[in-house]
Each structure stands twice: as C-alpha cells, then as structure tokens.
Amino acid sequence: MKRCRALAGLVVAASVAIALSSSTQQGKPNDRDTKVRADKDKVGGEGFWIYDDLPRGVAQAKSSGKPLLVVFRCIPCEACAKLDEQVVERDPTVQALLDKFVCVRIPHANGMDLALFQYDYDQSWAAFFLNADLTIYGRYGTRSHRTESEHDVTLEGFAKSLEGALELHARYPADKGALAAKRGGPVDAKVPEDFPTLKGKFTAALDYRGAVAKSCIHCHQVGEAQRLVWRNAGKPIPTALMHPYPNPKILGLVMDPAQRARVLDVTAGSQAERDGFKVGDDIATFDGQPVLSIADLQWVLHHAGEAAFERGLPARQEQQR
C-alpha cells in the first residue's frame, strides 16, 4: 500500500438545474400526480421495499441485524430513471445483494432529517447505506446528465457499493471511528419544511388525496433553501453551497462508474497526475474514510474547505489489485 496527499483548488461547473415536465408538456392531466401515486401503489404494494417509513425500516434493521439501504427518489425527474427502475425492480445484478438489506424508499424530501441525510440535493436519486444505529457506511449517487447518467452511476457500480457496505457491516463496530466523519455537522434547519422559504407551504408528509406533487418538497428545493438563508441575510453564499460535492473530475481524476472507486483515467497535466494517481488504482480510503463510491470521494472533497486544500488534501490509501 502507498499513501500520498492531493493538493488541489476547486473549480466546479455551475449547478445543473433539474427541470420537471409539466402536465401540459406531457399531454395528459395531472401527470406528476399520476406518477407519484403510481410509484406508491406499485412499489409500496409489492411489499419488498418499505415505502416512505424510515422508522419502520430502522426497527426492522435492528430486529434482523441487517444493514439499511435508504433510497431518495424524485419521482417526476428523468435523471437516473433507468438506474432507479433497475434497483426498485431488483434487477438480477443486485437482487441477491438487496435481499441482505432492509430497503427503504422515500419519494420526497418532506420530513427529511437534514442532520443525517446530507448529500448533493441537486440530485434526483441518492442512496445511503447505514447501520441500524444510523451510522453511515457510505453514499451512492452523483449529479449526472439527465439522459446519460451512466457516465457517473451504473447498476454494476451500485452493486459494488452494496458489497462494500456489507463488508463494513460485517466488521462493525470495528470501523466505527473511521465512519464518524461520514456524518456532517450542524444544519440550518432540522427538516426542510423548517427553512424560512418553505415554512408554512409544506408539511412532513405528502397529500396523496389532493395535489400530491405540489405537496412534495423536491431535493433541489432543499439546496435552494440553504442558499437563500445566506442570501436573504445579505451574506455571501459559501462556496460549498454554491458548488457542492465536486466531482473528482475537476482534479483530473476520472472514476470508473462500474466499479466502487477505481481510477479509469487521469487527465494529463492535472493535479491528480501530479499527485501520483494511476489508472487502475482502487481507492480504499480517502482522508481516512472508507470509500464505497464516487459519492464518498465527493463527500470528502465537499468538506475539505479551501484552507484544507492549501494544506494538502486528502490522504488516500490504495488497494493493490
């Protein structure tokens, strides 16, 4: 094994806006409402996924000894739609692995515990691997092109992350200390509906009997609400909120979406090349944290801060293949 330190400055592309097709564009009435209700009826009715009930999932994980998989999905959004369908329908690539988890599907951000579930809220699909005590093993999901998400997320890569989470679960609590940094710091609001710009407009649950899509807090609204806390106070918006969870590509580090955290390419002349990254490197830890996915790398980069990058960041550990 070898260690090195990466020193980098962050230059991140502008946030990608998530557009939702209107019912008029879709050519049928209440199309968003139809999609949200159909997902609840189909996925919730099949019985495998615990639908929109995290406390029940936690209780089942405690009683069964299994780890938790919690998936957040913005139903009307098209980004990652293929991956979402493959996962929710338990494609053979992941079926046996999913059977080893207590699987929870949450189709909104209403009531989301923002101290626990921290990620790039401009995504429309995100997964968390957790212990029943809510220790986070890792994250999966990277902001992607609306119709070409396979460049960042794949079913094969998700399967590798599931395997990694099961490995951490089998060793737990031996790695608990290294996992502590996977949980973020203080937040501006406990749940999204507590943000000033969302307060009074939303509740902790969806209104399935009424305009259900309008009652839903989309993940991107959480990110917007975070930024507006600063803007409405007349303060500069922190870089970490303006350009969250930078992709390793900005360092010249191109990861293989079909693997857990394997270097697919290193851009010539980039910081990654100067720091000694090589094609084929499997990154086992990043800044001391176990790595299950590209999203875990992004988590470290997001929390590095400018001062940390000036000191040199992060330390990595490679597995020899």
Task: Give a structural overview.
This protein has 321 residues and is an alpha+beta fold. The chain folds into 2 domains: 23-182, Glutaredoxin (3-Layer(aba) Sandwich); 246-319, Roll (Pdz3 Domain), CATH 2.30.42.10. The protein contains 11 helices and 11 strands. It has helices at residues 23-26, 31-46, 54-64, 81-88, 95-98, 155-171, 176-179, 219-232, 239-242, 271-274, 294-311; strands spanning 3-5, 50-51, 68-73, 102-106, 125-130, 136-140, 253-255, 263-266, 282-286, 289-290, 315-319. Strands 2-4-3-5-6 form a 5-stranded mixed β-sheet, sandwiched between helices. Mean pLDDT is 87; it is low at 1-29 and 307-313.
Strand order in space, largest sheet = 2-4-3-5-6
Second CATH tier, the architecture of the largest domain: 3-Layer(aba) Sandwich
Per DSSP, the total helix count is 11
Counting helices, strands and paired strands, the structural category is alpha+beta
Share of residues in strands: 5-15%
How far apart are the termini? 10 Å
Overall average pLDDT: 87
Are there runs of 5+ residues with pLDDT below 50, and where? 1-29, 307-313
What's the count of strands?
A: 11
Shape: globular
Oligomer: single chain
Instruction: Identify the CATH homologous superfamily of the largest domain.
Output: Glutaredoxin
CATH topology of the largest domain: Glutaredoxin
The top-level CATH class of the largest domain is Alpha Beta
Q: In the residues, how many domains can be counted?
A: 2
Fraction of residues in H or I helices: 25-40%
Please provide the ordered H/E string of secondary-structure elements. EHHEHEHHEEEHHHHEEHEEHE
Question: Major sheet, described briefly?
Answer: 5 strands, mixed
Q: Give the C-alpha Rg.
A: 19 Å
